[in-house]
Amino acid sequence: MRAVSSEIFAPGLLDGQAALVTGGGTGLGRAAAAELIACGAQVVLAGRRAEVLEATAARLGPAATTATGDIRVDDDAERIVATVLERHGRLDLLVNNAGGQYFVPAEAIATRGWQAVMRLNVGGTTRMAELAVERAMRPAGRGTIVNVTLSPHHGLAGMTHSSAARAAVESLTRAWAERWAGDGIAVIAVAAGHFQTDALDKYPAPVRESVARMVPLQRLGQPREHAWLVALLASELGRSLSGSVVTLDGARDNWCGPWPPPAITDDGGDVPVEERRPAATR
Ligand SMILES: CCCCCCCCC/C=C/C(=O)SCCNC(=O)CCNC(=O)[C@H](O)C(C)(C)COP(=O)(O)OP(=O)(O)OC[C@H]1O[C@@H](n2cnc3c(N)ncnc32)[C@H](O)[C@@H]1OP(=O)(O)O
Ligand SMILES: NC(=O)C1=CN([C@@H]2O[C@H](COP(=O)(O)OP(=O)(O)OC[C@H]3O[C@@H](n4cnc5c(N)ncnc54)[C@H](OP(=O)(O)O)[C@@H]3O)[C@@H](O)[C@H]2O)C=CC1
């Protein structure tokens, strides 16, 4: 008997599968874990704070268990993957969701800060992917890795260290997809836009309060929307999307801002239009 079923996927979509979600105790990772469970998967939630993980596992029910550790520390990363294998004997899906940065102008990023963001988003993500492949997926001849990034497609003013790190993850996604295709492993990146999670609380108030207005949809993404995408990528469809970066951002990447841009409007607030060429020269 399933405790909660998916609102959009068929029952049993991921029955029998074991998933590892890093950063699974909070926000987008927690939502993804809940949807994977609703689709039939067993999920191990990883993160540094045991109490946060335990509280989420209690909320998600018996299909959720925890593995505490820091993905930047090799022994911890090894232990997290080993825990999944001891518990389930397989690892079908790794959701590389743990990540983050801080909001500061590019010129104020200290070397240690740059390194901290790289170590987490690129180093931790890479190590977890390598361990999942070596220990579980290559021996099984099958697996899926979903790398969650914060879309870097606009350069992420205010978080340029993260922009560089996330762009690196997108590039790694393409390279890994090619490198591990022969092992039956699919690798996909999700370039997430701006989502309603508790993590937004740490940003300065003016940033936090205006962030939804920077999205053409005029609202933040909901964690369950992200979770549906992760479940879709964990399905058979994910295999043919290997090497792709799937953007989920309410059109933010493609937007130049509110229309009309104030800098080009005339005194009446209209956008000037170009003159047509005289008929004879057309
Ligand atoms: C326009 C569009 C808008 C849009 C803006 C709105 C964004 C909405 C979209 C949301 C996107 C998200 O990703 S929300 C999810 C956010 N979640 C997270 O960020 C969680 C994970 N983050 C972290 O753990 C930390 O931020 C991170 C720095 C990456 C790692 O932490 P560490 O413990 O490894 O690092 P620390 O020891 O604290 O710090 C190491 C160094 O980093 C620097 N450093 C750390 N925090 C700093 C800070 N606040 N200000 C300056 N510098 C800092 C210092 O140089 C530190 O060195 P010393 O000075 O020598 O100590
Ligand atoms: N919210 C948003 O608008 C967006 C978020 N994202 C990205 O999605 C992911 C999740 O974001 P969100 O849920 O909002 O934010 P959170 O800050 O809640 O999520 C980060 C998670 O990663 C874990 N984590 C952080 N560092 C480590 C580490 N070194 N080792 C293991 N676990 C770690 C944290 O747990 P703990 O501290 O216990 O280790 C936490 O559960 C992040 O990569 C984020 O950057 C991308 C686009 C937009």
From TrEMBL:
Q: Oligomeric state and partners?
A: Interacts with PEX5, probably required to target it into peroxisomes.
Pathway note: Lipid metabolism
Grouped into one coarse class, the protein's main location is: other
Native source organism of the sequence:
Conexibacter stalactiti
Q: Region Disordered: start and end of each range?
A: 259-282
Q: What does this protein do?
A: Participates in chain elongation of fatty acids. Catalyzes the reduction of trans-2-enoyl-CoAs of varying chain lengths from 6:1 to 16:1, having maximum activity with 10:1 CoA. Has no 2,4-dienoyl-CoA reductase activity.
Compartments annotated for it: namely: Peroxisome
The protein, known as: Peroxisomal trans-2-enoyl-CoA reductase
Note the Pfam families from the entry: adh_short_C2 (PF13561)
Q: Which UniProt keywords apply?
A: Fatty acid biosynthesis, Fatty acid metabolism, Lipid biosynthesis, Lipid metabolism, NADP, Oxidoreductase, Peroxisome, Phosphoprotein
Composition skew (Basic and acidic residues), residue ranges: 273-282
